[in-house]
TrEMBL record:
InterPro entries listed in its UniProt record: TPR-like_helical_dom_sf, Ycf3
Region described as Disordered: spans on this chain: 124-144
Full protein name: Tetratricopeptide repeat protein
Keywords: Membrane, Repeat, TPR repeat, Transmembrane, Transmembrane helix
Keyword Transmembrane annotated: yes
Stored Gene3D superfamilies: ABC-type transport auxiliary lipoprotein component (3.40.50.10610), Tetratricopeptide repeat domain (1.25.40.10)
SUPFAM superfamilies for this protein: TPR-like
Length: 751
């Protein structure tokens, strides 16, 4: 008898087939069980290894042993005439058919059953938010969904199923790449990253998430990464019914991550095309992941991008290191260069950024990466975004407008690019466009932190309660941003100075190193003449305290030092020019104003603290003192043109009326100046330092001037009493900050 015939007689082939099919079923069951338990990744590896080892053992056992009525015997000890291998063969055939039937049923359910199955059929391990559970046959269980755009989708952050929490950046990165690809589908509204990622780790109803994000469809999933093995599970859900339009699981090598992303986006595109009648007719026309990189570089890139999106000084500093590694490992990976440039630019030492580098240092480090990213991929949105960010910080506002336009053409939900564009538009004096962009940011990204932080104070000038409500909505999501937005809103509207201080104190409690909220905190404490307390907030802003206290020599010393360290940075240059003007050094002040005016598209200079045109009026006074009346008139005319545009949009604050009072005093219109001061006080002006402005010195002999100053002093005293009550008796951050003992000793004695 041949070997093949003997193998058949001893049922070796049947045992092997039965074992393989049974092992496959065991692996499927184990996969679901382990995905729904906190078992470490190695458990699955052990099961796979044991089953693999068991196959040759089972085959060897079938060859060497035989089942007999008396039990298992060695094959050589069995009388061939009494062998029951035929009966065993029939039993194995029945077993194989049974197991194959179960396996085929499982395969059919896994591949096709989930396409239109209710949410209950979904692997719950991938569910980071509970999906809607509509009644059977009720496709319109949620009437509120009818108002949402049909062609819309949100990509929720995929759940990290790996045992290592450090792999969060990887699962987030996969989600973000898919979001960017889907954003390229024409006519589809894709919820922006910052809004979608607010639901990370939250067990929230899918329908509720869809309503908040204003979308009809939600993509969710999970990522399990173990060494070079990768499993990605994704499912596309129609939010109003909770039914699946598509679902799939991918088991691949990590090297295939870009191909997987393309496969997922193509599959989703097909599902959306059928569901939403999209215009893309061929797979070749589907948007794809634009870049690929080696595995190590890609992981470093994802980690760096994740940290940049988190913001904060320490995060940006670490992001620089991760992105350096990504660029070093794969110099041809364009996204790593683009994000490297963004990270370097965010290391600038100025309000709103997170580092201590000069503009020259930032430009030197970021520019080569911008150029390389654009060389490698001219159609990479983030490369144009990086170009815009650097240009904006270098006063290249037209370049920033052009670059953000291209970035948003490539990625319509690129929220950072929207934000940089509205800032550039404001510097052109195009406030209408800036406001429209801010409104668009909130529409495209309803839970955007930066969008609502910027828009809520602007909205409050037209609708105070709406602005406050938007700011309050930020607190639960991002406490620092919510407190800061409320603080700015209250300060600008002049409703409650001590209330504004309370919000900024809470912001300080969340982030004691943030430049923006700290400057407001210092400013308010200085306005109520708590100079010692103000000096304790931040060493980098002592000049604000010195100017309010009238210590101009000290302010000039620190500002000159800051300017010398970063001579191209317009923020310290503006503050130095203002301080020199206040000190009566008009010629030296004007040298800096001339440079700043050349930077500005409107040939205006904006106050570094409140963005009003007070610095422009100081420049006008300088010009008049230096014998240039025409230049002074030009500056005042520019101020009034800017003021008129903002008045039309209801974006005028008390600081703007103080600037107008200074302009009228320069023109000799004393009554007009007093009228503007009166308006500013009514809107919340509490600045005693204003009465020391050189441009209003001509008003000093008027009784009305003295009366207005006395009124402001009285208001400051009243605000001071409220501030003392707040910081001494109702301190909202007692574990973070305590006032000086002397401060509260004064409070107990009464104001």
């Amino acid at each position: 008898m041949s070997l093949f015939e003997e193998l058949k007689r001893r049922n070796v082939f049947r045992v092997g087939i039965a074992y393989a099919v049974t092992a496959w079923l065991i692996l499927q069951v184990a996969d679901i069980v382990l995905d729904n338990t906190p078992a470490p990744d190695w458990v699955m590896h052990v099961i796979m290894l044991l089953l693999a080892i068991g196959l040759p053992v089972a085959v060897l056992f079938a060859w060497a042993f035989e089942m007999t009525p008396e039990g298992i015997k060695k094959e050589k000890d069995v009388d061939r005439s009494k062998s029951i291998t035929g009966e065993t063969r029939r039993k194995l055939d029945v077993a194989i058919i049974g197991v194959l039937t179960v396996a085929l049923a499982w395969f059919a359910w896994d591949k096709f059953g989930g396409t239109h199955a209710p949410e209950a059929a979904v692997d719950p391990a991938t569910r980071q938010a509970g999906s809607a559970q509509p009644a059977e046959g009720d496709p319109a269980a949620d009437p509120a969904m009818d108002e949402l755009p049909e062609k819309s989708i949100a990509v929720l952050p995929f759940v990290n199923m790996s045992n290592d929490p450090e792999q969060e950046f990887f699962s987030d990165g996969i989600s973000e790449e898919l979001l960017n690809v889907l954003a390229k589908f024409p006519g589809v509204r894709v919820a922006a990253r910052t809004s979608s990622f607010q639901f990370k780790g939250r067990n929230q109803d899918i329908g509720e998430i869809a309503r908040l994000l204003k979308v009809r469809h939600v993509l969710e999933g999970s990522v399990r990464k173990a060494g070079t093995q990768l499993r990605i599970t994704a499912q596309l859900i129609r939010a109003d019914t909770g039914y699946h339009l598509w679902s799939e699981t991918y088991d691949r090598e990590l090297d295939d991550v870009f191909a997987i992303q393309d496969e997922i986006s193509a599959a989703i595109g097909e599902a959306l095309r059928v569901e939403l009648a999209l215009g893309t007719d061929h797979e070749a026309d589907l948007p794809r992941v634009a870049e690929s990189a080696n595995t190590a570089a890609y992981e470093a890139f994802l980690r760096g991008r994740h940290l940049v999106n988190q913001r904060g000084r320490s995060n940006i500093a670490q992001a620089v290191e991760d992105l350096k590694r990504a660029v070093r490992l794969d110099p041809e990976f364009a996204p790593a260069h683009a994000w490297m440039a963004i990270a370097w630019t965010m290391m600038l030492d100025s309000p709103g950024t997170y580092g201590d580098l000069s503009l020259a240092e930032v430009t030197e480090r970021a520019t080569p990466h911008i150029e390389k990213a654009l060389e490698l991929n001219p159609n990479l949105a983030e490369a144009h975004g990086a170009k815009a960010l650097l240009a904006m910080n270098s006063n290249g506002f037209q370049q920033a407008m052009d670059a953000t336009a291209r970035a948003l053409e490539l990625n319509p939900v690129y929220i950072d690019a929207m934000n940089w564009r509205q800032i550039a538009a404001s510097n052109f004096g195009d406030y209408e466009t800036a406001l429209a962009i801010m409104a668009r940011m909130v529409e495209a990204d309803p839970l955007s932190v930066i969008g609502r932080l910027n828009y809520s104070p602007a909205l409050a000038t037209r609708d105070l309660e709406a602005g406050r409500e938007m700011a309050r909505g930020l607190i639960e999501q991002h406490a620092w941003a919510g407190y800061t937005a409320l603080g700015i809103t209250e300060f600008q509207t002049g409703e409650d100075l001590s209330g504004s201080l309370g919000w900024f104190m809470r912001a300080y409690g969340e982030d004691p190193h943030d430049e923006l909220s700290n400057r407001y905190l210092i400013r308010i404490l200085s306005l109520v003449e708590e100079f010692d307390e103000a000096r304790r907030i931040s060493d980098g802003n002592l000049h604000i305290v010195d100017i309010n206290e009238g210590r101009l020599e000290s302010a000039l010393h620190s500002l000159q030092r800051a300017h010398n360290a970063d001579p191209e940075n317009y923020a310290p240059m503006t503050e130095l020019a203002d301080a020199l003007h206040l000190a009566g050094q008009f010629e030296q002040s004007q040298r800096y104003y001339d440079q700043l005016r050349d930077f500005s598209p409107q040939r205006l200079v904006f106050d570094a603290l409140d963005a009003s045109t007070r610095s422009t009026i100081r420049m006008a006074y300088n010009e008049l003192q230096l014998g240039h009346p025409a230049a002074a008139e030009e500056a005042i005319a520019g101020h009034r043109k800017d003021l008129a545009k903002r008045e039309e949009l209801q974006q005028v604050y008390f600081t703007d009326h103080l600037a107008e009072a200074m302009a009228r005093a320069i023109e000799g219109d004393d009554e007009g100046a007093f009228e503007s001061i009166r308006t500013a006080i009514d809107l919340g002006a509490r600045e005693l330092a204003f009465f020391r402005e050189p441009s209003v010195a001509s008003l000093a002999g008027h009784p009305q001037f003295a009366a207005l100053r006395a009124e402001v002093q009285s208001l400051v005293d009243a605000e001071h009493a409220e501030v003392l009550r707040l910081i001494c008796s109702e301190n909202p951050i007692p574990d973070i900050w305590q006032p000086l003992r002397a401060t509260c000793a004064g409070a107990s004695a009464g104001p």
